[in-house]
Amino acid sequence: MADQEFESAITDEMRALIGVKGPETISELTTTSVRMFARSVGYVDPAFYDEEVARERGYRSLPAPPGYLGTPLYNPADSDPTFGGRRGGGGFRSPYPLVLNGGTDIEYTGEQICAGDTLTSSTALASLNERWSGALGVPMLIQVSETTYTNQNGKVVAISRGTGISYPRPGD
Amino acid sequence: MSDAVPDQIYFEDIEVGDSIPELEKSPTSQQLVQWAAGSGDFYQIHYDTSYAQDTGLDDIIVHGALKHAFLGELLWRFAGPEGEVKRVQCSYRGMDPAAQGRESAQEKKFTLRGTVTRKYTEGERNIVELDIEGVRDDGSVSTPGQGVVILPTRG
Q1: Measured distance CA(A65)–CA(B15) in Å, rounded
Q2: What pLDDT band is residue A1 in, cutting at 50, 70 and 90?
């Protein structure tokens, strides 16, 4: 498909945010929260439910299933009531109103992540790109955010990259 | 139901091109509510039909992150009790509906599949890379991605 010409929505101010870390978020893992996450995915492995089995398998406590990096501490004073994270999020705001979740990429360092852990994370904008959506007839802004998770011992346990796609309302 | 803990597979037993055991899911509105509690994401498009329709969707849709977690379970089961999941990556190329009401969950089957693309040793770690995907009941792929696991050796 030939590239459609369109005006870039990326400004110098937006580019200046690339690599700048946002505020820290504290997330907890408890035996109850690990069980709830594992149950919601549909895991049947007893390692996620029975601490004795988890210890026999070499874990300090119930291990976190892939994808679970703790639950952000909730406080109605500054948490988002729908998503639970910090209200307002990081520094980057797309100029477009509609948003799609483009993808998730989580890489683990090999450090155990278990019930009882407290993870500290912060997110930085990693990249900004644009492309024309032939299907919708609008430009799309593709932002990748990178979040680094560090445990209570100062060890990095995981790096997560999330892709957000934002675009104007077709027809506007 | 599949075995709670699958038999351990070893690095020596894997070859590039191998398909790994599939994992079958049938997400229901109940599972999406459980996921909302488990993940902390209470966005209404995942459990409230009229809210979803007000945003232009046909009906409630499965959370992208739940599909990512399904792929994580696929790799967890493949890596076995002595293996390790190193990376789970996927793109959300399309929405997936959830079964509701008296509708059979079997009609909303979502199958997780993987194929080995590379195996190599780095230091003491035996690494296996895979193409992974979440597949709808009609065979179309909504959630393609890649995974990396570390497997034990027989030696």
Answers
A1: 26
A2: very low
- In this structure, the number of other CB atoms found within 10 A of the CB of residue A48 comes to 24
Contact A57 B89 (CB under 8 A): no
Contact check, Cβ <8 Å, B72/A43: no
pTM for the full model? Answer: 0.94
Task: Please check whether residue B6 is in contact with residue B80, taking contact to mean a CB–CB distance below 8 angstroms.
Answer: yes
Query: What pLDDT does A104 receive?
Result: 97
* Chain A (122-161) residues lying within 8 Å, Cβ to Cβ, of chain B: none
Which backbone phi and psi does B123 adopt, to 5 degrees?
60, -125
Task: Write out pLDDT tens, residues A54-91.
Answer: 999 999 999 999 999 999 999 999 898 988 887 765 56
Q: Which of A104, A108, A110 sits opposite B68 (nearest CB)?
A: A104
Residues ≥6 apart with Cβ < 8 Å to A39? B34, B38
Q: Where are the alpha helices (H) located in A31-140, listed in sequence order?
A: 31-41, 51-56
B147 neighbors B77 (Cβ within 8 angstroms): no
For A111, the token pair is 């450090």
Position B85 confidence tier, pLDDT thresholds 50, 70, 90: very high
* Integer angstrom CA distances of residue A142 from A102, A126, A150, B146: 8, 11, 26, 20
Comparing alpha-carbon positions, the chain B residue that sits nearest to A82 is B42
